[in-house]
């Protein structure tokens, strides 16, 4: 297979610069739209972080046959059009698992309590459907199904980070595009190792992640002969 990685990030404070991207949530939405442009009409569910989650974006995606479930932050999210009463924490003490819901059409805003208030915006799950979060120490915590689904998909990222974060290339140059380039290379190598573990070659050699990386570098530099089984 042949893969290409294109990175285009403009330094500076212009309309398309990185400073503008960091400070304007609507530009995060533009990135989400670009990534999902081929998902229209396929009834996909996307899970978003606070910087992308917004009512306007989710409604626009719904018109395209794309459904969403996102974590909402009053600090990082675009909260335009959302009821202020749901964005303020309740003054009365709450027990773990309690939640409040406001609905508009297919859209639900959920405020769930678990040692703190967590807000979720979704048009992919009914707020009346029940789910559960399982904690090792505290056991099962009741929650809406949207919260359970978000936690389940978030765990993929957490597991990946826990397992492979120490193998990311630590070199951090000053230029942002170079940082993104080395980050993309690190992800590519880690994903290559995952594919290697799924292949028949793994049953022959069983390289660890460190051994795989060392072998890969040697082969790329021409310091070691390659084998058809590796």
The major beta sheet can be summarized as: 5 strands, mixed
What average pLDDT do the residues reach? 82
Overall radius of gyration: 22 Å
Report the structural category: alpha+beta
InterPro entries: PGBD, PGBD5
GO molecular function: transposase activity
GO cellular component, one term: nucleus
Domain PiggyBac transposable element-derived protein: 22-193
Kindly describe this structure.
- With 230 residues, the protein is of the alpha+beta class.
- The chain folds into two domains: 40-164, no CATH class; 167-221.
- The chain is built from eight helices and seven strands.
- It has helices spanning 18-23, 25-35, 55-63, 84-87, 145-164, 176-198, 201-205, 209-220, and strands at 44-48, 66-72, 99-104, 107-113, 117-122, 130-135, 139-144.
- It has a five-stranded mixed beta sheet, with helices on both faces. Strands 6-7 form a two-stranded antiparallel ribbon.
- It is elongated.
- InterPro entries: PGBD, PGBD5.
- It comes from Panurus biarmicus (Bearded tit).
- It holds the Pfam family DDE_Tnp_1_7.
- One of its GO terms (cellular component) is nucleus.
List the helices and strands and how they pair.
Layout: H1 18-23, H2 25-35, E1 44-48, H3 55-63, E2 66-72, H4 84-87, E3 99-104, E4 107-113, E5 117-122, E6 130-135, E7 139-144, H5 145-164, H6 176-198, H7 201-205, H8 209-220
Parallel strand pairs: 1-2
Antiparallel strand pairs: 2-5, 3-4, 4-5, 6-7
């Amino acid at each position: 297979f042949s893969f290409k990685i294109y990175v285009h990030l403009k330094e500076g404070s212009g309309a398309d610069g990185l400073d503008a991207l960091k400070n304007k949530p609507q530009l995060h939405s533009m990135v989400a739209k670009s990534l999902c442009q081929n998902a229209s009409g396929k009834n996909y569910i996307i899970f978003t972080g606070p910087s992308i989650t917004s009512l306007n974006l989710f409604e626009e995606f719904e018109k395209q046959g794309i459904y969403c479930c996102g974590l909402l932050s009053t600090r990082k999210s675009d909260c335009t059009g959302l009821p202020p009463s749901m964005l303020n924490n309740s003054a009365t003490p709450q027990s773990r698992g309690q939640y409040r819901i406001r609905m508009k059409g297919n859209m639900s805003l959920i405020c769930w309590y678990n040692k703190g208030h967590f807000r979720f915006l979704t048009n992919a799950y009914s707020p009346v459907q029940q789910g559960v979060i399982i904690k090792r120490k505290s056991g099962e915590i009741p929650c809406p199904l949207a919260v359970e689904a978000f936690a389940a998909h978030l765990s993929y990222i957490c597991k990946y980070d826990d397992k492979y974060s120490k193998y990311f290339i630590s070199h951090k140059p000053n230029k942002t595009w170079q940082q993104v380039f080395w980050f993309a290379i690190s992800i590519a190598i880690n994903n290559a190792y995952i594919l290697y573990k799924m292949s028949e070659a793994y049953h022959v050699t069983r390289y660890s992640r460190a051994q795989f990386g060392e072998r890969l570098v040697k082969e790329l530099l021409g310091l070691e002969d390659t084998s058809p089984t590796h």
